[in-house]
Amino acid sequence: MITEPDPLLQSFEELQQDYNILQKEYQHLLDENSRLKQENKGQHVHIHKLEE
């Protein structure tokens, strides 16, 4: 039985966590991009009023 954590395994697990976070963020951006494209479909000009 291994008593000390394997540094390579720890690094791998950290990379997996980072990768999962990036995948979720990427999917969020894809979803947001699709939503904005759908929202702007058929609209020639879309103006947002600036809040004062």
Question: How would you describe this structure to a colleague?
Answer:
The protein is mostly helical and 52 residues long. The protein has one helix at residues 7-40. Residues 12-39 form a coiled coil. Keywords: Coiled coil.
Number of strands: 0
- Biggest pleated sheet: none
Q: How many helical stretches? A: 1
Strand content: under 5%
C-alpha termini separation: 64 Å
Concise account of the structure shown:
Residues 12-39 form a coiled coil. By secondary structure, this protein is mainly α. The protein contains one helix and no strands.
Keywords:
52 residues; mainly alpha
Secondary structure elements and their pairing?
Blueprint: H1 7-40
